Each structure stands twice: as structure tokens, then as C-alpha cells.
Amino acid sequence: MKKLTIGSIQKCKGVRKLVMITAYDALFARLLSESSDILLVGDSLNMSFGGNSDTLSSTMDQMIYHTQAVCKGAPETFVITDMPFGTYCDEKTALENAIRVYRETPSDAVKIEGGADKAHLVRHLTSNGIAVCGHIGLLPQAFRAEGGYKVKGKTEHEALQLISDAQAIQEAGAFILVIEGVKADVATRVAQSVSIPVIGIGAGNGVDGQVLVFSDMLGLYEPFVPKFVKQYLNGAAIVKEAAKTYADEVENGEFPNENYIY
Ligand code: KIV
Predict the structure, then answer these.
(1) Shortest-distance atom of ligand 1 to CA 199
(2) Residues 107, 159: one domain?
(3) Rounded to whole angstroms, how far apart are CA atoms 35 and 55?
């Protein structure tokens, strides 16, 4: 599949749904890229890869290391890099860190969380030549401040806030938007209110595409399975079964047999 550009991604709106999957390493990037329009190096890697209970301790160095690996594994796929918590708290910091992503990796764009309150940051990045993906609705980086993961769009007030957040982010120059953990009917209204593609996660089917965390989608992440996650593979059970068979064969001397020796 030919690598998409910002222009070709935007032309998909209303024509076909976009497929985004997270990836953290070259191995899975290669495997997932065949079926993805966009690979997202999400700071969710801090949980499933790094073993932490939230995304907040993720660092710029970590995101750059994982983005380099993903880009090596999937050089023909459009890649977006998440900006971690605390790396875009003001315009100067945001631009310095986004420039690091562009200088130190071949990533195509960065993603920052937040609505109208973050529009000035999106504008500062886009006006300095950085392509930006917005992220509104449930914001994992606000986990501690909000006291948990809160589904958004439950009231008309919240719905109108989400629509104005999406419009502000679009107006500031973002080329695409992720909407997470939002009532499906409200996410549909948000997608209809802007001309950039809106990619949903836990936001129903009325948006312009979907993103899932790969380790959730493959059933590899066991600590917590959100309601919106469909597991397309029973990955944890398959991996454990394979490791158990290997361990049994090592213990009973069955592996390596004559097929696996020099
Ligand atoms: O970090 C991540 O993987 C994300 C997705 C949940 C959209 O931001």
C-alpha cells in the first residue's frame, strides 16, 4: 500500500473509513502496517510496554526511541507520535519537543491531548511546520486530575463543548483528530461538525475511522479490558500456551531434537 500523505488522509473523509492502530516497535509495526493507514506511537506504550499504571510518566526520549523503531519497521506507513504529559505545557516547550520528533525520527506528525484550551499550542506547532493530530474527549493524560477515566458527552453541555473543541483544533490547523471515550451519538455530531477526519476510540461508528491500541486489539494486555475493545485474537492465551509448551519440551528434553541442532 502506498504511503498516505496529509492530503490523501483528509480526502478519505466521507469516502472511506481510516484505520489507525498503535505500534511501539519495529516487529509489530511491520506486521500491523499491512492493514493500517496510520500507525500511532501512543504514550499508551507506557502502560502495556512499560508496565506502568497510567501514561503520565512517559518521556520524550521514550517516544523518540519507539518512533524510530516503528518507522524502521513500517517505512511506508504514515506515523504519528504522541507528545507525552508535560511536554507541551507552553508554546516554547511544545515546539522544542515537536522539533525533536521531526529531527530525531521520520515521524509524519505529533499528537497532543486537549480541546479549545490547547488550540494556541496546535496553532504554534502548525505555523512552525509541524503536522498535528488533536485528541479530545476522554484524555488519558488527565487521568489523575480528573480522578479516573471519564466518558464524555453525557450532557448537552458536554456535547457542545466537544463540538467547539473539535472546531477550535481544526481552526488551529490540525489535520486530523482523535476522539476518545465519547457517547456515540455525540461523537457522530462532532465528526459532522468539522471537515478534518475524526478517528474514534470508544466513540462509536459514526466517525471517520477507528483507532485501537494493538495490545488490546490482539488480546495481549490482561490488566484491564475497556468495554469498547474488541479482541481480534486471544493473544495472551496463545502466547502463554506457546511458552508453556516450550518450557515443557525443555524440561523433558524434547527440545531441541535433531531438527534443531548443528
Ligand atoms: O496513547 C494512545 O495509544 C492513544 C490512543 C488511545 C488514541 O492516544
Answers:
(1) 7
(2) yes
(3) 26
Q: For residue 54, what is its C-alpha cell?
A: 497510567
3-state secondary structure of 209: strand
Same structural domain for residues 23 and 117?
yes
**CB-based contacts of 220-227 (< 8 A; 24+ apart in sequence):** 220/48, 221/47, 221/48, 226/202, 227/202
Rounded Cα gap, residues 185 and 167, in angstroms:
17
81 lines ligand 1 (CB under 6 A): no
The DSSP output letter for 20 is E
Atom 2 of ligand 1: nearest residue by CA position = 42
Does any domain span residue 1?
no
DSSP-assigned beta bridge partners for residue 114: 135
Residues in the chain: 262
Residue of minimum CA distance from atom 3 in ligand 1:
42
H/E segment holding residue 180: strand 176-180
Q: What range defines the domain where residue 257 resides?
A: 235-262
Positions marked active-site: 180
- The CA distance from 190 to 162, in Å, is 7
List the pLDDT tens digit at each of the 262 positions of the chain.
689 999 999 999 999 999 999 999 999 999 999 999 999 999 999 998 999 999 999 999 999 999 999 999 999 999 999 999 999 999 999 999 999 999 999 999 999 999 999 999 999 999 999 999 999 999 999 999 999 999 999 999 999 999 999 999 999 999 999 999 999 999 999 999 999 999 999 999 999 999 999 999 999 999 889 999 999 999 999 999 999 999 999 999 999 999 999 9
Q: Is the CB of 163 under 6 A from ligand 1?
A: no
The reply to whether 58 and 28 lie within a common domain is: yes
